[in-house]
Structure formats: C-alpha cells, structure tokens
Design brief:
6 helices, 25% helix
C-alpha cells in the first residue's frame, strides 16, 4: 500500500515537472508583451515591436524590431532581432540575436566570438538582462578610424516586479584612433542601485570610476586624467513626497605637457524637490518633445497643440517652484599650477501657501541665491584667455583683488543680484 502511494506521489511530481515548462512559457510570453508595452508607454524615443511569438512546450521563437528615434533630428534607426527562448521550471532564458548579425558580412570585429545578449526571467517578476562583449577590433573601410576594446560586461538585475534594479558595467579598456582624436579609457566600472519611487523618479546610489582617461586632439598636447569618480545618491523624505539628490565629481589629477595637478572636486545638490509636481512637469515636457518629433498632417492643429503643451509646461514649472526647493553647487575646488579655484552656488525658493500661489506671476519673484568665487590672480596674469574674460569683470568691480586672489561675492533677492556691493536688477525672464 505504501509503495503505491510513493508511486502515485512520484508520478504526480513527474507530471508537475513536465508541465512546469509549459506554464512558465505561458507566463514568460505574458511578461514579454507587458514589458514591451511598458517600454513603449514610458518614453517616446525607443519603440519595440514583436512581429511573431511562437511558443512551444520547452521553448519559444520570436522576431521583432527595436526603433531608436534621434531626439535632435527625428531620424529613425531600426534593428530587427530574433529571440530564442528556453523554458525552465521557475523561469526562462531569452537569447537575442540581430537578424543581420552582430557584424557586416566578411568583417572580423570579434575575433574571439560574438557578443551575447540574454534576458533571464523568473515567475515572481525578477529578471537579469546581460550583455557580454568579447574582444573587439573595428576598422573603418578606409583604415583611418580604429576602435579596440578588451571586452566587457553590462548587467541589469531587476526585482520586485520592476520596482528595484541593480546595474553593473565593467570595461577593462577601450581605444579609439581617428584623425580627429585619439582616446583611451582604462578600467571603467559603474554600479548603481535603484528603487522606483513614483512616475519617472528613482532613488538609490551609485558610483562610476575610470582609472585613467587620455585624449589627444589635432594640434593640442595630450591630456590625461587619473582617478575619475562620480558618486550619486537620491533619497525620498516626508513619506515619499520630497526628494533629495546629490552628485559629486572628483578627479585625482590632470596631466598635460609634463605637468600634473589635482585633486579636483565638484558637487551638485538638489533638496526638498516636490515629487508630484516634478512628475507633472516632466510628463508635460516629454509630451511636448514627442509632439515636436512628429510630422503632422495639419500644421495649424499641431501648432495649437504645441501652444497648449507649452502653457502646461509653464504652469507645472510654476507649481514645482511654488512647492519650494533648493539647488546648487555646494562645493567647487579645481587645482591649477597657480593655485586652487574655489567656489559655491545656491538657489532656493520658499514653499508658498495656496493664496500666495494664486498671486504668483513669475518664478523669479521669490528666488534667492548666493554665489562665491575665489581664484588665484596669477591665472589672469599668466593666461591670455583667462585675462580677456577677467579684465572686464575686474573693471566693473565684479571681481575684486584681495591679496593674491580675485574674489566674487554675490547675493540675489527680490530680482536684484548684488555682486561685491553693486546692485544689478534682473530682467523678468520667467
């Protein structure tokens, strides 16, 4: 009797295991079409289409296209692809290939094997998109331009039904040689952790580093920068209604014509940004940009729609500013052979009451700001290009000498910019 129970249980397990790929395949197909629809709805510059999707028990085959729109010209760039899907017990593996191949016929861009682009999905809504790039050698037909790469890896790990993501990009080395420039990048790495907050806003932190970057242009000395790092963070406050964000750029040293100087550092910050108003503003702006790329049948109707969108963009911008914010450059430090250039910049707007918002005519009315800049006077003395820019500012008193430095101190309030004691009324621009 016990043996029969084990046989029944074992048979049930085998049936479930055999049927699992079919169920996984069904869910994978639904997830694929949902993802394509989300990509197309979330922005206007990349469009995906699925021509065919033929699902079987253990796998599927599909074809489609990816169209990228150049926002500056409106040009469409199309890539047709085919996709091979393997179904497992808890997920599927999708392998993408361009229909025309990864390289032109007869070319030898990838001597050690082709790139591989895959998407691994799971039933519970997670997935890993991964691109593995092999050693690359690309030469233009005339032999003038050359691109060489040691390969690399890009991986996007998505979880929580698309509401969390971790990005990793690694590229040990890349070189570009052309008549216009010679560029080399050593040890590029980027990591980013993101969590969806609302609309188009994501929070998280990330780091991008380059060990060394070298640039040589025609008629100019080679410039090499070492230890480049970009650190960013964004976090939500007040139950997700406000956003604080900061990005810092740092550089260990810059070398040119045998001289090296550094370190350098610049930090950008944004605080207390209203999330709902920002989403409203970005949505209206995106719609206006998408309309500008269209070729309308009725130019007059398109013009009127453009005017309506422009008014919506202006209204949403006023709403964003009226909610209050502060932004600026809290830290600027650039090392030069003559000394350090230091400065800071801040701009803020108070949060307005409902009555004050109704009376708000312009964004600039309640803006306040502060700017400070200090640089070595020797910079203006030793470099003609700097001297040409600094001379009229010194003459007008906007740069004043304090010892061996040139200093600018500015404050803005009530649409008046005061620099080193001089009041400069600002025009009502917006």
């Amino acid at each position: 009797m016990k043996l029969k129970k084990w046989i029944v249980a074992g048979s049930a397990i085998l049936v479930a295991a055999g049927a699992a790929p079919w169920g996984v395949g069904y869910v994978t197909e639904q997830q694929w079409f949902q993802a394509v629809d989300e990509v197309n709805r979330s922005q206007a510059f990349v469009t995906m289409e699925t021509d065919q999707y033929q699902r079987g028990l253990l796998g599927a085959d599909a074809t489609g296209s990816l169209v990228v729109i150049d926002p500056s010209t409106g040009e469409h760039h199309r890539v047709d692809f085919r996709m091979t899907v393997s179904h497992g017990v808890t997920g599927s593996l999708m392998d993408f290939q361009p229909v025309d191949g990864w390289q032109p016929e007869g070319a030898d861009w990838f001597p050690e094997g082709d790139p591989r682009l895959t998407l691994e999905t799971r039933l519970w809504g997670s997935g890993v998109l991964e691109l593995k790039m092999p050693v690359t050698r690309i030469q233009s037909p005339d032999g003038i331009e050359n691109l060489r790469s040691s390969g690399g890896l890009a991986r996007l790990d998505v979880g929580s039904m698309g509401q969390q993501a971790d990005l990793l990009v690694v590229m040990p080395g890349l070189q570009l040689d052309s008549p216009e420039a010679q560029v080399s990048i050593d040890d590029f790495q980027a990591e980013q952790s993101m969590e969806w907050l609302s609309g188009d806003i994501w929070t998280g932190s990330g780091t991008m580093t380059i060990k060394q970057l070298s640039f040589l242009g025609p008629g100019a000395p080679r410039m090499t920068v070492e230890g480049l790092a970009v650190d960013s963070r964004s976090e939500a406050n007040d139950d997700g209604s406000r956003l604080d964000s900061e990005v810092s750029f740092s550089l260990d040293s810059t070398r040119m014509e045998g001289q090296a100087y550094g370190p350098h550092r610049v930090t950008l910050s944004l605080e207390h940004l209203d999330v709902a108003n920002w989403n409203d503003f970005s949505t209206n702006l995106a719609e206006m940009q998408a309309l500008a790329l269209q070729d309308p049948d009725d130019p007059q109707a398109a013009f009127e729609q453009q005017m309506v969108l422009m008014q919506r963009v202006n209204d949403s911008l006023q709403g964003l500013v009226a909610a209050g914010f502060s932004a600026g450059i809290p830290e600027l430090s650039v090392s030069t052979p003559e000394g350090v250039v230091e400065g800071s910049l801040s701009l803020s707007h108070p949060e307005l009451s409902e009555e004050e918002r109704q009376q708000m005519l312009m964004v600039m009315q309640r803006l306040t700001g502060q700017v400070d800049l200090s640089l070595p006077a020797a910079l203006a003395e030793n470099y003609p290009s700097v001297r040409m820019q600094a001379a009229p500012l010194i003459k007008q008193g906007l740069l004043v000498e304090e010892g061996d430095r040139l200093v600018l101190e500015g404050r803005m309030k009530d649409m008046v910019l005061t620099i080193n004691g001089q009041d400069l009324p600002l025009p009502p621009l917006f």
